[in-house]
Amino acid sequence: MEHHAIPLTDVGRNQAELLSLMLPELPADVLVSPFLRAQDTAAPYCTRYSVKRRTLDVLREFETIDPELLKGMSGDERRPIVDAYWAESLPDKRMGERAETFREFVDRVTRFKALELPVLNDCTVVVGHGMWTAMLIWQLLGFSADDSYAMKAFRRFQLGFPMPNGAVYHLTEVHPSQWSVTAGESVMRQIVALAR
Fold first, then answer.
1. Helix H segments across the chain?
2. Is the backbone of residue 118 left (phi > 0), alpha (psi -120 to 50) or beta?
3. pLDDT digits over 47-78, tens only?
């Protein structure tokens, strides 16, 4: 399927319902990726508290490989292509017309970090994606992502980063441009339990 059009599963919809009960009751704002699964994750929460969501393209997930190049392939058939992309780790390589380069992805997250993050009100809820969130936290930790070495290092970080469906991370600005990140582990455990 097209990456942006992948829907939530029945389990994902149940997780979104539970998550809607566990997020702040008075969100200052709700920012959502334009991808269908993020929109559907935010929907129960926004409905519950009568909040209007704001869709930001900058929050969309990294589109590593053009879906046309993977059309009709199973996960097992796609895996070697994805693995080869990350093994090569060329930040400016584009895998098809409708794919982003790694550098474009990094720049998009950097724009959010520089322009949106500092002006968000307390209790803003952001509904996005795993690799995108991992890149934001990677940058907040002070790591670069501008060459092959950094790209490979980020991939190792991202693969080990706990990001199940419904993952919750709290960001708190402790000093200007310095952020503390705390995992909402108890929420994540309850959300993950629904998938068992």
1. 10-22, 36-48, 67-70, 75-88, 102-111, 130-140, 148-160, 185-193
2. alpha
3. 999 999 999 999 999 999 999 998 899 989 99
CA angle 143, 59, 159 (to 5 degrees): 50
CA-based radius of gyration for the chain? 17
Q: Are 188 and 162 in contact (CB under 8 A)?
A: yes
Specify whether the CB–CB gap between 194 and 17 falls below 8 A. Answer: no
Instruction: Quote the pLDDT of residue 3.
Output: 77
**CA pair distance 67, 63, nearest whole angstrom:** 9
Q: What are the boundaries of each domain within the chain?
A: 3-193
- Percent of the chain whose pLDDT exceeds 90: 88
Phi, psi of 82 (to 5 degrees): -65, -45
Q: For 20-75, give the DSSP string.
A: HHHS-SS-SEEEE-SSHHHHHHHHHHHHHTT--EEE-GGGSPP--B-HHHHTT--H
Rounded distance, CA 52 to CA 162, Å?
28
Beta bridge partners of residue 55, listed in sequence order: 32
Domain 3-193 top-level CATH class: alpha beta
